[in-house]
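Supplementary Note 3. Input sequence used for the single-chain structure prediction.
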Amino acid sequence: MGVLEIPRKEITPVAAGKGRTSLFSFTKTPSSSLSSSSLSLPHTIPPSPLHKFSESMMEENIDNAELLITKWDPNSSAHTKYEFLFQENRKEAKNFIKCVKDLRQAMHFLVSENSVSDKLVLAQNLMQIAMKILEREFYHILSSNRRYLDPGSVSSRSLRMLAWSRSRSSESEEEHCVGSDEDIRTASESISEEERLSELAMSDLKSIADCMISSGYGKECAKIYKIIRKSIVDEQLYHLGIERYSSSVINKMNSQVFEHQIKNWLDGIKIAVKTLFHGERVLCDHVFSVSITITESCFTGVTKEGSIMLFAFPELVAKSKRSPEKIFRLMDLYESITDFWPEIESIFSFESVSAVKLQALNSLLKLGESIRIILSEFELSIQKNSLKIPIPGGGIHPLTHSVMNYISFLANYSGVLVEIITDSSSTTESLLPSLFPESYFESPNHDGCPSLAISARLAWIILVLICKLDTKAELYNDIALSYLFLANNLQFIVEKVRISNLKYLLGDDWITKHEKKVRQYAANYEVTAWSKVVSTLPENSSDGMSPEMVKTHFRQFNLGFEQVYRKQTSWVVLDGKLRDEMKVSIAKKLVPAYREFYDTHFVALSGEKNLEVLVRFAPENLGNYLSDLFHGTAVSGSSSSSMSSSSLSRVSRCLS
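The predicted structure, written as discrete structure tokens, is reproduced below.
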């Protein structure tokens, strides 16, 4: 119903007058009927000349509007040969909008001053025809300018158009309601032809919407807008790879398809939020700026379904089958939503699209919950690792390799994990920091900082790993080899922390303390493995010894050194620096003692037969033998801080 509030059901046909095929009179509703006595009042005030002049002007406005409206009415014999007004004659389009305004003004006047006027009936009919013409023009502009009303183009260009529109607001509304080519060029100093056409289309849509809404035809205008723009949004989402899925479909995806869909979504949300939905919001705000109610209705009708479908995908992924390697994709999804949250709140600020924000929030909650569960399951899988086979040579255990690669990669998501772990209501999570000594982390870096929660969580997982490695060391029959195994694995852990973002979470103090532990394991190995060899040499080589005693010491040394050497050439120390330090330490204890004994007693044996069998090692050759140590072949892993897809796929196997 129009703003004149003239119910169309109250218009009834009457006898045709001169020169017209039909006329309409307005029947009064009972509430507005006058009494018979009031109709027969003898004293009637005659209309004033000013009133007559105003009525004459209003009737003239109706006559002028009739000429222009019938010219563009497809059902009229006077219809122009051109099909679309705004496309063919922008100056006349401007006049058309002005005529509708004048027609509306005339109707207001006649309703209040002469509600039984034949001109009022004509004006009502003309208004209905004009609205049909504008509906048709509105549809044509929307459908034929899809390229120029692309959401990305609208997002970037609309600001200039809005600034131009506001600068004209102080002038006559209808005088500038349809921007001319010259007006649009003035709006931006230097724009391309495509930009110019985009801004012309936006200007025309706004002028038509303003006119139809002020004439009471906002619903008809909004209906056309929703149909066309929704189809554009749905098509854009389809091209971005955003589809409607179910949990069962996602669970059936193989790893390649799953990765492809996640990547599509991560790429798609950037365009959907920053370009597609933002552009639609800007276009709605601009075209329907005279009515916030219609703006909200149109934006909701165009974007609600597609946006809910977009933000529902992460929730479905979060509810799908869990595995350790999935946590990284879950955190990618979580981070993406949180990164775009300010835009989501701004774009979907209307109450009618609150379900969109609710869906995005629900996806965040489900993602966070799933990530916390995977972390707990990951920790439990370390504790339950049941591999009973000792690693040859005391090398890096596959569990150490997989867990540290996994944790170092988790450290790259520390910002996301801080939010997820801090938001957790889990008692275990909240108590984790208190389980460590006050000096366990660098207090200046962590005191009062939310990152303490993630630091404690990752440190706890590493501690669980170290404890598990202690039990793995018990699988070795040789105690020296078990210490070497612990030194190797802890050194790998420390180095992984040092070269990854774990360093910034755990701090230099953590690294220093665990490096000392590595040195302690190495020292324990050295004592256990080499003390018997060193003990074959007398504490004081200068003491007088019989030739037989000297021979005995040489034989014992030869036997002990050969046994240790033969056995330990298959042992391994993967870290080059640690390997060299251990060799130097062994040499410092062994070579000087042997050299002193050798130099003191070798001359006394110079006359012995088969001297080379009795004295098998010269002091200068011991270093060469020691250099052969710790190069044995053993299971090892790269110390690279990155985690490949193959590494991720091994995580589950190594933890089982």
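The radius of gyration is 44 Å. Strands lie at 11-14, 23-26.
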